[in-house]
């Protein structure tokens, strides 16, 4: 057995079922091994950012890593932006990146570059294979680094000759590093800190667990503290039967305002919230300077167990509250922000997966969807735009029976639109709603926040008109049926119909 | 004057006229400075790979760097693959990459990553700005590194606050590092080595200079040596009146065969040729093991002067030979490889710029175009696919009066297809001919070369059908008119018409 086959067989034995791939010459022996073993589902992306974003989406829903197959330093770099998002999400992803054969490395061939250097800033774990015999063991070490709580991006560099060489040895599945436990002391201190004027900030895996969400809200009810979550998270369970956990807003002034009233903060699987960017005259830290911060559970610790212990100590019961009202479909009319949010939230079926790269628009969908049937909400976690289309594809590969609805800003969509082709090829039930405002709307606000008084050159750099993008044509060009909608009631009907149909659909919502 | 404005004004004073940009929040002060000064043409790309590929294309034709404006580590990474190509081409490019404000760096904000680490593998020169007062000086140091012979990729990291801060100082234009001179001794040794059985390998700026091409061919005629060029080059001048310089083929066995007869090689602005990839049972070095190699001019030296001295020493006159026959338009019929090449080469007007990302198809265009009117040929230099559409855009920005014809493989086109929108927005006369064979054809050969016997999973990973891509729809979605062609004579007419019309056009050539 060659090195490539030993890696494929070892990963499969550990439960790795999917390989998202955009291979090149240096990965041909992996393509061959995947072909001969037929152990994994191979999903092709036409661009590496699709591959890595899909692996992230898969991981968020499957709760375990897929493999990616990438080609040398430029191929890895093409996938790096979505690996950045995956890292910030703590999504488990295992990258297999082909490198030139060891004997070829010294020759400065056209595709030679510093691959170790290129992967390091976008990986939590990096290793370069050194022999066919140890390649599978290295891969499993990376797998364990990726799959251990809370999740990480691991990258194994695979010199091509180690894949060809015979002598591959299947490696056993290593034990995962368990989530760290929180001390009774920490729980006691957190209990003491909570009360009116305090905020319980919950993140990470806590947000993925309905019981933990109810406990967190129950603790807030019992102590008089508030409960909040970071602005963007790997996955949040929400909808009817679950408490609404307010998220920290993106705009700096709204974020400062939302946190201004607190003098104690207790953190569970998250860190002290900071501004997305620095702005002249604004602080980087969002909590008031006088606020005392206390960590109940680090990201690598078991926040769910910590919350359970905390609930017991403060005598809190799981939240039992009134559901938010069911969202209602909008009347016929133009697609303003509220109508857009109503049209989407009211069309969500039970079990829907929402992928949120709406950026400036559709910000009310989350609020309204609190009263919808239970759903999962996946956000852009690292601020690197171009995550939505691939994330939706990967989530759908993980959960073929759950419809995916992607809230997609138009500017961001253009970074990785190639993912629509993968959605079509794999027959994924993804409904992409393009928020067509035809500008980098968010940057107009940012330009004002740095004190500029924008003239025509600046505005032109933030404008997506001249020519207008036609997302329906783009979608059809990649085999995805598409429809343009200008009316709110029609948008509702289009989404409601699409989520019931197999296969992808793109709806270009013309915003007013 | 703030730091951002001092950079813009200093770069402009040195002759920098164009900024290719995909900015984000941390670059808003640069957008503002570009807006207020109106000194540079700002060209927006909808994806960073478009920005960097266009900067490369611009540099190849303008002979000087444009600036790029990129956003943080993920934004840089999105542009890295085409910077890799630019580095391998020795194209002068100056990247301005925004970073978080210094005071914000310690907070692990969502978009934080190791930016210095991310840029290093794809840059020849890197610096991080340290104050508003010195920012322009740093930028000009980078500009000089980029613009000095033969060209380099320079990256300046710009913490956002240095752009806002007052105290910017315009920096003088530094002197460029001159190309190194070649010793008389080296010229004498080269003269001695040349003769039957020797090959003169010319690369770099030599290929851009008609007089040097004629001298090189004249030296070959006078000495009985052969003259050849690397397979992929930044820019080659060719066509009627110029000698045909054979290039080293891409496929390993053809490359070995082409070089098998030589026992001496003299290198001018290039290095010893190596295989693109390592293959089992094949060498990395392409020249025979017994071949003696001698460097007349390193890449950083003046190969043109060296060739002139060499010609004088061996008594060679500039080449005067018979032009290759003018290419003829093909008869009506299916688009096989020869008909495709005929259709394109016979439609090229004088002064055309050819962008070659044809990969497996259209390989005869270069041979046939040797008899066409003079033209410039730009190739994919670093093997990182996705260069064609942006490179064509940048070349056209540099040379608005010269029609650009892009030979574009379909699989490669999908990496940076967003560049079509930039072509439309800027009204660039670019004719993109998509070679629609609907597969990663080159990888099928590579799979066989590593000894695989591909089954359905492997073939599926190299196949672009299911669903078929419709490039005409994709082009129209970005405002570029498009036409699908299945007949060779019709393709000729379509290209001949398009190059005479302003603005971009995409022709999807359905290959048989």
TrEMBL record, chains A, B:
It comes from Paracoccus chinensis. InterPro entries: THDP-binding, Thiamin_PyroP_enz_TPP-bd_dom, TPP_enz, TPP_enzyme_TPP-bd. One of its GO terms (biological process) is small molecule metabolic process. Keywords: Thiamine pyrophosphate. Residues 1-106 form the Thiamine pyrophosphate enzyme N-terminal TPP-binding domain. Belongs to the TPP enzyme family. The keyword Oxidoreductase does not apply. This is Acetolactate synthase-1/2/3 large subunit. Gene3D superfamilies: 3.40.50.970. One of its GO terms (molecular function) is acetolactate synthase activity. Residues 374-508 form the Thiamine pyrophosphate enzyme TPP-binding domain. It holds the Pfam family TPP_enzyme_C. It comes from the Bacteria.
């Amino acid at each position: 057995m060659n090195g490539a086959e030993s890696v494929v067989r070892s990963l499969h034995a550990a439960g790795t079922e999917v390989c998202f791939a955009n291979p090149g010459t240096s990965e041909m022996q992996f393509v061959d091994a995947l072909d001969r073993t037929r152990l994994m589902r191979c999903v092709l992306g036409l661009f590496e950012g699709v591959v890595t974003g899909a692996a992230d989406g898969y991981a968020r829903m499957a709760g375990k890593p897929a493999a990616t197959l990438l080609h040398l330093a430029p191929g890895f770099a093409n996938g790096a932006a979505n690996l950045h998002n995956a890292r910030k999400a703590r999504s488990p992803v295992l990258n297999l990146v082909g490198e030139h054969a060891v004997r070829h490395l010294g020759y400065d061939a056209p595709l030679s570059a510093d691959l170790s250097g290129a992967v390091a800033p976008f990986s939590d774990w990096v290793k370069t294979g050194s022999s066919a015999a140890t390649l599978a063991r290295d891969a499993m070490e990376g797998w364990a680094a990726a799959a251990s709580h809370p999740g990480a991006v691991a990258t194994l560099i695979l010199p091509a000759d180690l894949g060809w060489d015979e002598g591959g040895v299947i490696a056993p599945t290593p034990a995962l590093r368990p989530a760290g436990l929180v001390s009774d002391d920490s729980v006691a201190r957190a209990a003491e800190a909570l009360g009116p004027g305090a905020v319980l900030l919950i993140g990470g895996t806590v947000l993925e667990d309905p019981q933990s969400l109810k406990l967190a809200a129950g603790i807030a009810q019992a102590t008089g503290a508030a409960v909040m979550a970071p602005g963007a998270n790997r996955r949040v369970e929400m909808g009817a039967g679950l408490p609404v956990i307010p998220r920290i807003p993106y705009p700096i002034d709204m974020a400062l305002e939302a946190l201004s009233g607190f003098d104690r903060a207790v953190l569970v699987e998250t860190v002290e919230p900071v501004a997305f960017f620095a702005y002249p005259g604004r602080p980087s830290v969002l909590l008031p300077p006088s606020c005392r911060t206390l960590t109940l559970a680090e990201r690598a610790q078991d926040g769910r167990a910590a919350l359970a212990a905390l609930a017991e100590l403060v005598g809190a019961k799981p939240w039992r509250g009134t559901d938010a009202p069911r969202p209602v479909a909008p009347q016929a009319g133009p697609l303003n922000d509220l109508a857009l949010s109503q049209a989407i939230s009211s069309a969500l079926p039970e079990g829907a997966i929402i992928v949120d790269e709406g950026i400036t628009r559709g910000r009310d969908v989350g609020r309204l969807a609190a009263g919808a049937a239970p759903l999962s909400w996946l956000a852009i976690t690292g601020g690197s735009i171009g995550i939505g289309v691939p994330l939706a594809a990967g989530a759908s590969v993980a959960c073929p029976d759950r419809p995916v609805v992607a809230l997609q800003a138009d500017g961001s969509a253009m970074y990785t639109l190639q993912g629509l082709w993968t959605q079509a090829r794999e027959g994924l039930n993804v409904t992409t709603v393009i928020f067509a405002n035809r500008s980098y709307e968010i940057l107009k606000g940012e330009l004002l926040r740095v004190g500029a008084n924008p003239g025509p050159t600046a505005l032109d750099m933030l404008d997506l008109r001249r020519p207008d993008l036609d997302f329906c044509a783009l979608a059809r060009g990649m085999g995805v049926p598409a429809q343009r909608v200008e009316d709110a009631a029609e948008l509702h009907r289009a989404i409601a119909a699409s989520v019931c149909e197999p296969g992808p659909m793109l709806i270009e919502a013309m915003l007013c």
